[in-house]
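Hey, I'm writing a tutorial for new members on how sequence and structure tokens pair up, and I'd like a real worked example in the thread rather than a made-up one. If someone can provide the structure for the chain below, I'll link this post from the tutorial.
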Amino acid sequence: METGEDFGPWLARQLKLAGRTQAELAEELGLTRAAVSAWITKRSVPRPTVMSEIAKALGTDIGTVHSRTTDTQAGLPVTWYHRPGYQDGGRDGGNAAAFAFDADVQVLARETCQNSLDERLTENGRPVRVRYTIHELTGEMLDAFRQAILWDELQPHYEAVSASASHQKVGRVVHAGVQDMFEKGRLVLLRVDDYNASGLVGDDYDNGKFAAVVRRQLESLKSDRGAGGSFGLGKATLWATSALGMVLINSTLSSPHEGRTERRVIGRLELPWRSVDGGTYAGPAWLGRPDPDSPGAQVTRSWWADEETVERLHLTRDSEEPGTSFLIVGAHDVASLDEGQADRATEDETATDDGTRDIGSMHRRLVRALERDFWAAMTAGGSRLPLLETSVRTLRNGQVVIEEEKVDPSEAQPARTRALRAFYEGTTVDRLTEAGQVALRTVPLRLPRGGGLGGTLGTHQAVLLVTDASDRDGVPKQVHSLRGNRMTIKRSGVFGLPLGANNFQAVLLAGTAAGDTAPFAEEAEEFLRAAEPPEHDRWGQTEELTLRWSHTAHHRIARLTTEINAAVKELVSGPKRSGDEGGAKLRKALTVPTGRRAAVKRPAGPGLPELDGLEASIGPDGEWRITAEVKLPRADELPTMTPVVLLDVRSGSRPRLDWSELVAVDGCAVEDDVLRFTPGARRAVFSGSTDVTSHPVRTTLTRLVLELRAGKGE
């Protein structure tokens, strides 16, 4: 059980909350002020008979005074504090950090699980356990919850936001959320609980994890090189997933604050600027106990709630294990609307008109995201324990709709989990000769020196695992790349594979994920972490990489990709057949109608590299994935060329797409998306993927054009 706070500090805070002085309490108890002062300074404690008199004076029961695990209800009540409008007249249309991510439960799963992994308590060796609970409220339970969150206080603010909804994106989302709650009489709560994590420790205002999450934006206090997050943006996905902009928090601390650890509660509301009853408000608001030390006792801070309060707020935790519960109020999943018609056909009676709050769809998408992004963190083998356990359950008014589903990585990712276990258990082989084997290669990542200095700091040997794939493994012939926290950072195909290569899955372990003995593992972890964007879904050029290393540092990652592709192709290439066996069959299958084409006359003088072959497919995230072959003329020096991806349209200029990845496969090098060809080479091969954020329309509705332009390709 939780140990209560020392009597002196607890009593001092109760007097502050009640707006009373030590002298006033002493007079009511019939004691001297010196006696009360001795309690406050911990020089003595009151006798048991005096304890009951103190309870009566504070308007609470004797049990609260003895246990001191919560504050009394005397004095300033729990309420909402809305940040006043800026004195210079500035206005915010919402929290910009929330726009870094989509309102997507799969993005939410990725960011929240990553944060829980970063806060895992490592001393006991146990995994962090993350549970997602989708809970739909209707009828009396919805009414009781609105009363618990003091809806009557909030309603004028929501009405003000709705009145200006046509001018603000955030306002439109909030208006739709309120409309859904009242017109359809339902509200979806999505709770994220983690256990065996540090919890939101630290003071309400000073530097600490609590203030970083609840009070501040764009602040990350993760100093571990292996941490997944680094921008302080991940927490914004919680508020982005709430159509009402509201998140309630209950944290059990790993180290005491104010002498206690359990039921530290606060709420935060993210709304745009608004005018209510003649006052203006900047945006955010906090649900908490007014802080008597703040000006006018208006600013609210976290409070130590009782069990009844956390139950009414749907924040009751399952155990005393440290960790945090985040309750997203009015959860919606706009990205689910992009799912295919086949998936919609399987939706059950829980579906709604717009689909964004369908609890069945949310459940399925959460499970898929956890399987896809955190299979490695949930995989154990040899002496290695899993870092993470996850589950999803769905309720309606407290009754089970979908039973709790514990995510099993070996079910969704059998080939990749087999590969990782083989690495942990030391059963890998040098070459694949039988089904079920896992081949291991090391691939070099040459780390640059920091501060713009030239040369190489050292070579990190990342571990590449390759094994055969089955139908259950999803998209075949992919490499999943990860580092220390074992979250999948990058999913990429291997281009230019030999004809007839068997289906396979590959895993790249970089940084500390490559093992305790891998050279320069910590340095590689830091370098790759800096090469990740806020989404942490790829490695490439970033501002941090440029500032801390150099503007060409990302070329080291491109070379790593080239090494990975070469190693995979060498491992999956089938053994050569003797004589011409198989060759005749292949020629027969690829027979081209007879008839020789007339040779095309080329102009005199040095020629330009020409595209001579192209393979293109649509990747799992909707990106175009391209492998191209270039025919090179005979010349001592070849010009640089820029591959340009365009969309084919019937009229007008062709929209140009951006590259998310462009790598050299053979006979060339890539620098700033420009091809430089190897002297003396007659052919070159490069591959790449387009950036889906640059696609003006859905990929399946487009046709691709690839051009090779001289120079920078402008």
